[in-house]
Amino acid sequence: MDWVQLASTYVPANPDQLSAFDSFRLWADHNRAWILFVQLILVYYLGFATRIRMPILKTIFLYVLLFAGALIFAILDVQLPVKSAMLVAIAILVIVKLRIKPEQTQRK
Fold first, then answer.
1. d(CA 78, CA 7)
2. 3-class SS shares of the chain: helix, strand, coil, % to 5
3. Structural domain boundaries of the chain?
4. Which of 12, 29, 38, 55 is placed for a possible disulfide with 8 were both Cys, Cβ 3.0 to 4.6 Å?
5. Alpha carbons 74 and 4: distance in angstroms, whole number
6. What is the pTM of this model?
7. Distance CA 52, CA 60 (A)
8. What are the pLDDT digits (tens) for 23-51?
């Protein structure tokens, strides 16, 4: 993924002496596509999956498509705050899941 690394937008103030934040930002820039891939999986399972168990070929196809989307989002993440937007989407979906769960147990 050298092309994603070439599009890195973070330049530390002092490259010789990196702080923990600088190291984390460089790591996040280097692994941008993988971070987005994990976030896309979380969003899919929190918001769209009706059942967790699928046939293995469908699951593999789903992961391939999610990774293709992560690559597209990694390109867009150079100029847009895609990772932050995905974190907001995950937080909203977790809140919705937590609010729906007690309501479903009361109906049963």
1. 7
2. 75, 0, 25
3. 20-107
4. 29
5. 7
6. 0.79
7. 13
8. 888 888 888 889 999 999 999 999 888 77
